[in-house]
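Objective 1b of the project was to move from sequence-level analysis to a structural picture of ligand recognition. The entry below was assembled by the postdoctoral researcher (A.K.) and checked by the PI before modelling. It contains the amino acid sequence of the target and the SMILES of the bound compound, fe (ii) ion.
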Amino acid sequence: MVGPQPAAASPVEPQAPGTYAHTIAIANLAESASNAIGANGLLARVGALYHDIRKLKKPQYFAENQAKGRNPHDKLKPTTSAAIVRNHVLEGLELAEEYKLPRGVMPFIREHHGTGPISYFLEKAKERDGMPANSAEFAYPGPAPRSIETAIVMLADGAEAAARVLHDPTPQKIREVIDRIVRQRIDQGQLPGCADHSRASSRR
Ligand SMILES: [Fe+2]
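Corresponding predicted holo structure:
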């Protein structure tokens, strides 16, 4: 279960190479970060390996698996796109039940986006129709992380996705991306009680 390839994901892994690479990267990041602060690195690693399990059944709807110029969201309304993205959390939990994954994995699926906005499609909806009447349609279902390990997976997830699209990644630029993601998650209220960590990181 802790190897590079999640057992339940293996049948569909070739269809979701982007999600697979992203998953391995954040499992490594989350394990190292957890161990570095005395949290449970093994738990963070296993949770990270399964956090996006539902994406493996609809991989083409997630940016990391899309070939250039082929995005099925181009034909969908922003509300439909947001529902697909939002549902990778809810349906991921159902899939985890179906695969009989250990209970300890569930919080990583449920909490890794917290209650954060589905920003890309929220902006698209605003451009098309103005402010949506029901903003909950453009937010993840949550809850916000309730453990250090799920908080670390949330941060690794956001930082890896943002760093991956840098055109000219340098250690300095990657550091800035990580700081931005951590601050953004704190400002969104996803890391209650983490204000002290924010001050500590800005002193570096
Ligand atoms: Fe996700």
